Amino acid sequence: MHRISFVAAAVVLLAGVSSAQYLFEDFESGVVPPAGWTVTNNGTSAGWVPDPFHSLNGFASAFHDDYTGYNLNSLDSPAADLTGSSSAQLNWDQDNYYPTWTLRCSVLVNGTEVWFIDNYGTGYVTHQVVDLSAYDGNSSVSVSFLYEGDYANEWSLDDITIQDPPPPPPPSHSIFFEDFESGMVPPAGWTENNNGNSAGWELDPFHMLNGLSSAWHDDYTGYNLNGLASPTVDCSGETGVYLEWMQDNVYPTWTLRCWVEVNGNEEWYIDAGSPGGVRQESVDLSAYDGNSAVKIEYIFEGDYANEWSLDDIDVRAPDGGSGGFTLSVANLVAGSTTTLSLANAGPGATCIIAYSVYGGGPTNTPVGSVDLTPPIRQLPAVQADSAGAASISASVPPHVGGLNVWIQAVDLGGPELSNSLAETVG
Question: pLDDT for 50-65, tens place per residue?
Answer without folding.
Answer: 998 877 766 789 999 9
